From TrEMBL:
Name the UniProt record assigns to this protein: Cytochrome P450
Main location: endoplasmic reticulum
Names of required cofactors: heme
Residues at which heme binds: C315
Superkingdom as given in the UniProt entry: Eukaryota
UniProt organism field: Pyrocoelia pectoralis
Transmembrane domains' residue ranges: none
Pfam families assigned: p450
Lineage: Eukaryota, Metazoa, Ecdysozoa, Arthropoda, Hexapoda
Family: Belongs to the cytochrome P450 family.
Membrane topology: Peripheral membrane protein
Length: 370
């Protein structure tokens, strides 16, 4: 089932669907980002929050086809429930523990990780959107449309049920917004700690945008190779998804050892630890985009760097996530210089009660118009 959906999405994303969709949307966001930066109080700009609003609006539009209006209406239900997804409250931690350590008990007790009200809210949105589109013959260029067509047209594959479709849109939204906003926040923070990298990156952005009449296009973004290296280095130091989870589906004998991983065993791969291990990345504390230049990136040992996971369950939103991240960074860097706000405590502390890698207290920066 998942393979079918993932293949279809990859085909559509390959066609440039993601780029088309949110490039149409981003023009509206540019203005909002500028306004937010310009109006930020003297205490600094709450960058992590601003970028969460940006990605929530983009994914909301691309996944559900709805305007979330996070900037203009930060207390909307959409924002409220979206934020609730990632809050790791005491009760959620207990649920996660039961599901992971005592899965049978979890099943018997019908323990769910996500609070019922959150699931119900998103279920209602998708149900309403599908009904509205069907009744009014509306066709949009978004993820929901891809799934609706998959349900309606594709007779060669196992058809997917309505609840499966809802679940996929939900997963797409959850997986898509916080990951990219965290990447941008950490990236801007490191650019403040390494002003020479910020300057070099801005030079590249300006040079390439000038070649393209100052407009952000798919082609101009693809040419920004130093930007790629900076984003890759950010994802190394701060992978937004800090661990990968797998379940062993058949007994597996680890090479050159007498260890057998038994079928059914759950495996946690500590991604953030791998990415910051001096054995694989010398001087891991140093933010060094040169690790990812064309000359150097072949030196990275396979499977020591996996910010998007690997194998059949790897992230299906890589291209979308990178495009979204690049658009956000280009939009902010071309007109503003960033420095750390006095609200930012360095060295940072990671947020403890979160599924994602995040800074305790958020990322706060000063933005100065160039
Ligand atoms: C910088 C941005 C992003 C990062 C770092 C990231 C990272 C990841 C990681 C580590 C996984 C788990 C992979 C594994 O277990 O092997 C994942 C899964 C996933 N991601 Fe992303 N992601 C990003 C952006 C996105 C976006 C923008 C979307 C959708 C638009 C998306 C959709 C998904 C989906 C649907 C899955 C689940 C795949 C499955 O279960 O097979 N991701 N992502």
């Amino acid at each position: 089932m998942w393979e079918t959906i993932a293949d279809q999405i990859l085909v559509d994303v390959g066609k440039g669907w993601a780029v088309k969709t949110f490039s149409a949307y981003k023009s509206g966001l540019d203005g909002i980002i500028y306004n937010t930066i310009s109006s930020s109080a003297s205490g600094g700009l709450w960058v992590s929050h601003t970028l969460e609003c940006y990605t929530m609006d983009v994914i909301g539009s691309c996944a559900f086809g709805i305007d979330c209006n996070s900037f203009t209406d930060p207390f909307s239900d959409f924002c409220k429930y979206s934020k609730k997804i990632f809050q790791l409250s005491r009760i959620k931690r207990l649920r996660a523990l039961i599901i992971n350590i005592f899965p049978y008990l979890g099943k018997a007790l019908r323990v769910k990780l996500m609070p019922r009200d959150v699931t119900k809210f998103f279920l209602n949105i998708v149900t309403h959107s599908v009904k509205h589109r069907r009744e009014n013959g509306i066709v949009r260029n978004d993820f929901l449309q891809v799934l609706m067509e998959l349900v309606d047209n594709n007779k060669d594959i196992d058809s997917i049920s309505f609840s499966e479709m809802v679940a996929q849109v939900y997963v797409f939204f959850i997986a898509g917004f916080e990951t990219s906003s965290a990447t941008m926040s950490f990236c801007l923070m490191e650019l403040c700690l390494n002003p020479e990298v910020q300057e070099k990156l801005r030079e590249e952005v300006n040079l390439i945008l000038n070649k393209h009449n100052g407009t952000i296009t798919y082609e101009s973004l693809k040419e920004m190779t130093y930007m790629d290296a900076v984003i890759n280095e950010t994802l190394r130091k701060y992978p937004p998804v800090p661990v990968l989870n797998r379940r062993c589906i058949q007994d597996y004998h680890l090479h050159n050892s007498d260890i057998i991983i038994r079928k059914g065993i759950k495996i946690t791969i500590p991604l953030i630890a791998l990415h910051n291990d001096p054995e694989y990345f010398p001087n891991p504390e140093k933010f060094d985009p040169n690790r990812f230049t064309v000359e150097n990136k072949h030196l990275i040992i396979p499977f020591t760097y996996m910010p998007f996971g690997d194998g059949p369950r790897a992230c299906i939103g890589i291209r979308f996530g990178i495009m979204q991240t690049k658009i956000g960074l280009v939009t902010m860097l071309r007109d503003y210089k960033f420095s750390l706000s006095e609200k930012m405590k360095i060295p940072i502390k990671f947020k403890l009660h979160s599924f994602m890698t995040a800074v305790e207290g958020g990322v706060w920066l000063n933005a100065t118009k160039i």
